[in-house]
Amino acid sequence: MKLLVIGSGGREHALAWKLAQSERVETVFVAPGNAGTAIEPKLKNVALTAYADLIDFCKKENIAFTVVGPEAPLAAGVVNDFREQGLKIFGPTQYSAQLESSKDYAKAFMSKYGIPTAQYQTFENAKAAHDYVNQKGAPIVIKADGLAAGKGVIVALTSDEAHAAIDDMLLGNKMGNAGARVVIEDFLQGEEASFIVMADGENVLPMATSQDHKRLLDNDQGSNTGGMGAYSPAPVVTQAVYERVMNEIILPTIKGMQSEGHPFSGFLYAGLMIDKNGAPYTIEFNCRFGDPETQPIMSRLNTDLVGLVEAAIDGKLNEVSAQWNPQTAVGVVLATENYPETPKKGDVISGLDEADQIGKVFHAGTSVNAQNQIITNGGRVLCVVGLGDGVAAAKAKAYAALEKISFDGMQYRKDIADKAVNR
């Protein structure tokens, strides 16, 4: 069979790589893909992005099913377009994708269905937003309502930071349309974790737990990014926490979307804050696999992903299960100079083959220049994954692999997975 993965990042490289491991798969096309998906066995890039072109391609190539990687096509309704043409595709509809594409929608949904989350209010008027911050004090969290590629959340530790974020979004148009409305919510304390499931509208199949590192610099300092590394499993998600997340967050969300008349099919990602008592709160929903969580999670999946996606598309997730490698996977993101503000592009990357001998290198912001060299082409360039018996061993392998890689201005965190090591 032939499959299609939509997207060009590290998440898409990892999903396509895992799908291609199935003996039933002849080719996984990646649209548009990156320099890594161009050279991976059984993967082939397709220079298409328009949905009409992708639909024509799927019909012409007799694609068995499509998996959507990033959030933007989901928010734009790509799943609706494909289904209208009778094509199999895994991902939520445009309505259901509002759980990610509108922070205000997500918060109102959680409030309606009693899903634990921070208290909040939504504002379009800057003065009203400033008044609210003055009333609540800091720390406080300011979020752009719409999609902002992981950069629309400001955790303001002081009132001045909160007021500056409001001005940037509502008056300075820093986030464009995404920041035309802001959600202001209480600051939650605890440890973050990522809880991702596959859903078929009614049934869910949990993926392995993971933890993401959002801040740019070591010790969770610096600006928020799309994610600087991740590891799986996440020790903070104990069996007791796992059961609470399923019963208090995941299942009520799936039942709630059914009640809304829009059953949720696709990857559902709950970004969690787990407090000192083990109580989980929802920081955010994503309607797709996380990046960089996908890379370590897919590195641990022993089950054929093709069969899982087929079961999800057919509404039969209750008939399948996922087996996981008991080893830990740690993924470290290598980013360009000036990421996340103004990432530098076009620098030649060396040492990729040597790194791949030690760990697994997933490409994200990469392309090929006229001299056939792999170059940087985005803020987050690569994610290097190491597998090992325990967190410390997996971390050591990931960092040993990434030390083989170099490009101008390369930056990365040196403390990925340390929270788990310290546990």
TrEMBL record:
NCBIfam families: purD
Enzymatic class: ligase
Transmembrane segments: none
GO biological process, one term: 'de novo' IMP biosynthetic process
GO molecular function: ATP binding; metal ion binding; phosphoribosylamine-glycine ligase activity
HAMAP family associated with the record: GARS (MF_00138)
Gene symbol of the encoding locus: purD
Pathway the protein takes part in: Purine metabolism; IMP biosynthesis via de novo pathway; N(1)-(5-phospho-D-ribosyl)glycinamide from 5-phospho-alpha-D-ribose 1-diphosphate: step 2/2
Keywords: ATP-binding, Ligase, Magnesium, Manganese, Metal-binding, Nucleotide-binding, Purine biosynthesis
Short name of any one Pfam family annotated for the protein: GARS_A
Entries under Gene3D superfamilies matching the protein: 3.40.50.20, ATP-grasp fold, A domain, ATP-grasp fold, B domain, Phosphoribosylglycinamide synthetase, C-terminal domain
ATP-grasp domain: residues covered: 107-314
Organism: Neisseria iguanae
Cofactor dependency: Mg(2+); Mn(2+)
PANTHER family: PHOSPHORIBOSYLAMINE--GLYCINE LIGASE, PHOSPHORIBOSYLAMINE--GLYCINE LIGASE, CHLOROPLASTIC
Record EC number: 6.3.4.13
Similarity comment: family membership: Belongs to the GARS family.
Entry protein name: Phosphoribosylamine--glycine ligase
